[in-house]
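A favour between colleagues. Tell me how you read the following sequence-structure pair.

===
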Amino acid sequence: MTFKGWPTEALDFYEHLEADNSKTFWQAHKEQYDEAVRAPMEQLLADLEPEFGPGKIFRPNRDVRFSADKSPYKTHIGAHLEGGGYIQLSADGLACGNGMYVLAPDQLERYRVAVAEDVAGAELERVIARVEKDGPQVFGRDSLKSAPRGYPKDHPRIELLRHKGLVAWQEWEPAKWLGTRAAYTRITAFLHASQPLRDWLDGHVGPSELPTR
């Protein structure tokens, strides 16, 4: 079945979940979640797979072990694409991301070396300008307040050197097109526009080589 957007019931589900984030509400409305929220996301991932690789939907349950907020459920549905893209739907609308959200220590070292290097660093600046010209915005994650150790404070790319993650991001408020095939068009347009950033990160940073816990 082809992805045709999310019905209004998907946004309604998350509006009500924000007001009553409880197991009782979830169990009473799980059918609405399955049909209006999850099923369209599964259809979307199936449509995207030939070009962007398989996708995975994240669990709706929150990990509350180390959080002061014990709300049991996420107030959005999120999915990750093998190629690096991220898709999220909530009561606030649609959001898409692409890049490397959190850099492992070995990735961070390679990232900083590349950013500091004249050719690769200048290339990243051009990539960011190109991506942002096409719509997405590029954000640093978990940025340091000062220069990382071993790098001068007056480095021409000091702002980029401070980041511990780098992602392209774009958001859309709820609108009628979200319930149509136009949602697929906007998502694929974002993935194409943000791909140069992902390509730079894949080429200069790559996956972490550290053992997983």
Summary: The chain has a mean pLDDT of 96. The radius of gyration is 19 Å. Residues 1-91 form one domain. The longest strand covers residues 93-100.
